[in-house]
């Protein structure tokens, strides 16, 4: 496992990236590859934040209902958001291949299922809204779903261009690709304070400072350094369970295991197979779990998710969990992350929030932030801005 030194002394850089998760490492790579002098500061270890807890899905859409997004931000912006998300998924997969990042990258189709009549009505409405906006929305009926997945559902929307990765390994791979292109990475080096003037910003660590034109904040959620921005978010916790090995006899009863299954329950579940023998289930989201009660809540949600999995695949009933864990995230009012500047913080660029529990947002953020740093703005990026 690579390790990076602590930051010491004073230096200058074109951009300082705060946070060494998938978003920060993707941003450090994008900026360094574009020729900028980049410094990345990670408070703990690279990839040990939310990235290590996530399920590793590069999804093709931002996981919000198109019709609802259209009502919130308008047709044009919603269409841009869906187009750029899909583009980012394809480009992210291509980048990981080009850099030869060893992160178990596998192409995956996905299906968003409706399992009740109410969910089917919602899915049909959403499909209509997507088609109305000129987006692709291939529908599956109950029989096609049963034949392919052996799951009892009323309808499904298919997407075909996503992938799964080991997000921790992808993060380490992007970190070393950034370092190869000249980025300086520091671990155990929290940004403690950020001062700014009209001309530049100074990022202060315990043992030094960095003067820069751009500070990229890639800490996933607004930390206490940005208390004033916390009002834009709801702090939530999602739960994940990896099952024990599913016996070959049981696996033979199940359908195609290469497809990622997401349902339209509120909150939704995401189910995917890991290494063909274990099932990973994500869901049961709720308000942020307080540290005091966290372990107890994880045990309860692990049981709940295993039960809910057995309603999807009755043949796995009785299967035991191998691991259960929790991941915190910040949710925005319309479900899309905020990526870009905020008028109260000159020289800062932010990437906060989580959409569809997906790695695609991390890569998309790196491209939008690069466009801001190099002043090559794309009007489509407005869909992700703070003032959308
Ligand atoms: C349940 C769940 C499932 C998810 N599933 C997926 C998935 O399928 N695929 C996927 O990849 N994504 C998934 N995500 C989203 C995932 O969290 C993000 O995609 C991404 O991996 C998070 O990366 P990040 O860099 O934004 O945050 P993090 O990985 O949390 O990185 C932020 C880093 O900032 C550091 N930091 C904080 N404060 C400071 C400071 N002051 N100075 C320096 N460093 C600081 C932290 O130590 C941390 O390492 C999921 C999220 C949830 C909640």
- Our count of domains comes out at 2
What is the CATH class of the largest domain?
Answer: Alpha Beta
Task: Briefly note the structural class of the backbone.
Answer: alpha/beta
The number of distinct β-strands equals 17
Q: So how many helices?
A: 10
* Bound molecule kinds, no repeats: flavin-adenine dinucleotide
CATH architecture of the largest domain: 3-Layer(bba) Sandwich
In CATH terms, the superfamily of the largest domain is FAD/NAD(P)-binding domain
Average per-residue pLDDT, rounded, comes to 94
Shape: globular
Order of helices and strands: EHEHEHHEHEHEHEEEEEHEEEHEEEH
Q: Approximately what portion of the residues adopt beta-strand conformation?
A: 25-35%
Radius of gyration: 21 Å
In angstroms, what separates the terminal alpha carbons? 40 Å
What does this entry look like structurally?
With 388 residues, the chain is an alpha/beta fold. It has two domains: 9-54 and 168-232 and 334-384, FAD/NAD(P)-binding domain; 108-160 and 234-331, D-Amino Acid Oxidase, subunit A, domain 2 (D-Amino Acid Oxidase, Chain A, domain 2, 2-Layer Sandwich). It contains ten helices and 17 strands. The protein has helices spanning 22-33, 50-53, 66-73, 75-98, 117-132, 142-149, 167-180, 248-251, 294-312, 360-373; strands at 9-18, 38-41, 57-58, 106-114, 139-141, 155-164, 184-186, 193-196, 201-205, 208-220, 234-243, 260-263, 270-274, 278-287, 321-331, 338-340, 348-352. Strands 3, 4, 5, 6, 11, 12, 13, 14 and 15 form a nine-stranded mixed beta sheet that branches. Strands 1, 2, 7, 8, 9, 10, 16 and 17 form an eight-stranded mixed beta sheet that branches. A hairpin with a 6-residue loop joins β12 and β13 (270-274). α1 (22-33) runs parallel beside α10, α3 (66-73) packs across α4 and α4 (75-98) crosses α10 (360-373). The longest helix has 24 residues, at 75-98. It is globular. The two termini are 40 Å apart. The mean pLDDT is 94. Flavin-adenine dinucleotide (FAD) binds at residues 18-24, 41-44, 48-51, 54-57, 167, 190-191, 218-220, 223, 225, 238, 240, 282, 327, 329, 354, 357-359, 361-362.
């Amino acid at each position: 496992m690579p390790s990076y030194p602590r930051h010491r002394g004073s230096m200058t850089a074109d951009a300082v990236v705060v946070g060494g998760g998938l978003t920060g490492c993707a941003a450090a790579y994008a900026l360094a590859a574009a020729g900028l002098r980049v410094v990345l500061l990670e408070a703990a270890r690279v990839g040990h934040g939310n990235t290590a807890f996530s399920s590793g899905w590069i999804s093709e859409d931002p996981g919000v209902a198109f019709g609802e997004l259209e009502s919130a931000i308008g047709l044009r912006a919603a269409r841009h958001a869906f187009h750029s998300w899909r583009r980012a998924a394809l480009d992210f997969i291509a980048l990981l291949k080009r850099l030869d990042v060893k992160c178990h990258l596998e192409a995956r189709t996905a299906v968003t299922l409706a399992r009740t009549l109410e969910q089917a009505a919602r899915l049909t409405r959403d499909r209509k809204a997507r088609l109305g906006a000129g987006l692709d929305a291939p529908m599956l009926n109950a029989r096609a779903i049963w034949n392919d997945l052996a799951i009892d559902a009323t309808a499904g929307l298919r997407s075909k261009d996503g992938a799964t990765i080991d997000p921790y390994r992808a993060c380490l791979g992007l970190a070393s690709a950034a370092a190869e292109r000249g980025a300086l990475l520091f671990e155990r080096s929290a940004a403690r304070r950020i001062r700014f003037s009209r001309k530049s910003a100074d990022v202060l660590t315990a043992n030094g400072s960095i003067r820069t034109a751009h500070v990229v904040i890639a800490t996933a959620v607004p930390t206490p350094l940005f208390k004033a921005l916390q009002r834009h978010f709801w702090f939530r916790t999602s739960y994940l369970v990896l099952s024990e090995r599913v016996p070959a006899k049981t696996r033979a009863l199940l359908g195609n295991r290469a497809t990622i299954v997401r349902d339209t329950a509120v909150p939704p579940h995401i189910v995917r197979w890991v290494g063909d023998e274990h099932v990973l289930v994500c869901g049961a989201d709720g308000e942020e779990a307080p540290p005091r009660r966290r372990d107890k809540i994880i045990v309860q949600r692990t049981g709940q998710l295993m039960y809910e999995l057995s309603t999807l695949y009755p043949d796995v009933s009785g299967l035991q969990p191998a691991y259960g864990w929790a991941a915190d995230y910040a949710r925005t009012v319309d479900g899309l992350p905020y990526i870009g500047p905020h008028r109260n913080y000159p020289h800062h660029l932010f990437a906060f929030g989580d959409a569809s529990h997906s790695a695609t947002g991390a890569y998309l953020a790196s491209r939008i932030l690069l466009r801001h740093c190099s002043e090559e703005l794309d009007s489509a990026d407005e869909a992700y801005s703070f003032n959308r």
